[in-house]
Write a structure and sequence with these properties.
single chain; about 375 residues; alpha/beta; six-stranded mixed β-sheet; five-stranded parallel β-sheet; 15 helices; 15 strands; about 40% helix; globular
Length: about 375
């Protein structure tokens, strides 16, 4: 449970995780400081980091016990935090699970893509369900129009959102970026160019919402395109950023390779338009991940762009079929003409244009509405 204002709010994954624990291990991945440990501790009788069921690989005493193959006695649930930093963690966790389940349940948490770091060697596939924990969204904190303003300003990460203090948010943002670059990357990847990685992380917020040119980034950083691409992939694995592929319908001359980049913490983006677009992208990605991780649907979030540079920001794809498309506009503006163009040439049935105002109307099958209304109507989590 997390406090927001005067209310204590349950996280959206609690019910699914509780159900999955009876069948397999549960992996909870997501950005640093998004609330993974707090979520996991909530399943204990006393939600405290001092609980003997909580074992953090970064704690020397816990690490020594785990290396000896020891688990605390008399505990039905075991939480292993950041254990993926250990090179042979897959075999260790597999041994724990095979020897103890179902008498003991396991939650594995980490600030990196656990699905990526579980591959190779003796795979854990078939022994776990993977859940990606996202920052707070509008639906989780109440869904009112005023909540949109708070989310835009402070982002969806628990600490700055709850405090809603600009000074705290600036310090928290700086500390988090240093932890990602200096600690998480050091523990998980062999990267020698840390200073260039820091420059890249500082540059990416300025590239949000537009097709990302790795070549231009490499020129700005004076590094090879191959190195820059590798660094971006590492930042994706560490839940710092993510990229969307274009939607390649045969009926439009869609671009093929250009990807758009967004950040997990949209509060880093200075300009209001790209920040709002990034917040919408993150809400839609959260919806896609939730539907995939809990219901098993094949979900994708993409964008639409053709060779004539007509573009619609997002399209949600479910089981290989486009479900709806979304254009984001920070102000109450006219409908993007590209929406009507793509509406005639694709099988996408629903098109929305969302904004931060109050106008709500429909024209030629296109709905223009406030983002907080859209969030409720579509059923975003």
């Amino acid at each position: 449970m997390v406090k927001y204002g005067k209310n204590y709010l349950p996280r959206y994954l609690e019910t699914s995780i509780k159900h999955d624990l009876s069948e397999k291990m549960v992996f909870v991945g997501g950005p640093r400081q998004v609330g993974k440990t707090t979520l996991a501790l909530g399943f204990l009788d006393e939600p405290s980091r001092r609980h003997k069921s909580y074992l953090n690989w970064d704690v020397v005493q816990n690490r020594a016990s785990l290396m000896r193959g020891e688990l605390p006695g008399g505990q039905e649930l075991i939480i292993l935090d950041e254990i993926h930093k250990y090179a042979h963690w897959r075999n260790l966790v597999k041994g724990f699970f095979d020897s103890n389940f179902p008498a003991r349940k396991f939650i594995i948490t980490g600030s990196a893509r656990l699905d990526y770091y579980s591959k190779g060697g003796d795979s854990l596939m078939g022994r776990y369900f993977y859940h990606r924990l996202h920052p707070f969204s509008l639906a989780e904190i109440g869904g009112a129009r005023s909540d949109v303003d708070v989310l835009l300003r402070f982002g969806g990460f628990p600490e700055p959102l709850i405090k809603a203090d600009t000074r705290f948010w600036r310090r928290w943002r700086n500390d988090r970026q240093q932890l990602i670059i200096r600690e998480d990357m050091r523990d998980l990847e062999l990267v020698r160019e840390i200073s260039l990685m820091e420059l890249l992380a500082e540059e990416l917020p300025h590239r949000v919402g537009s097709p990302l040119s790795v070549k231009k980034l490499s020129e700005a950083l004076q590094a090879s395109p191959r190195s820059v691409e590798r660094w971006i992939q590492i930042l994706e694995r560490l839940y710092y950023c993510y990229r969307l592929f274009p939607f390649g319908s045969r009926t439009i001359r869609a671009v093929k390779k250009e990807k758009k980049l967004y950040l997990w913490d949209w509060s880093q983006i200075h300009e209001s338009g790209p920040r709002f677009e990034n917040m919408v992208a993150s809400h839609l990605l959260k919806y896609c991940h939730f539907m995939q991780d809990t219901e098993g649907h094949r979900m994708q979030l993409r964008y639409i762009r053709d060779t004539d540079k007509r573009e619609v920001d997002f399209v949600v794809i479910k089981n290989d079929e486009p479900v709806f498309a979304v254009e984001s506009k920070s102000g109450e503006k006219n409908i993007n003409p590209a929406i009507f163009y793509f509406k005639k040439r694709t099988k996408i049935e629903r098109f929305y244009q969302v904004h931060l105002g109050e106008t709500d109307f429909e024209k030629d099958g296109v709905r223009v509405l406030p983002f907080h209304v859209f969030s409720k109507e579509v059923g975003l989590v």
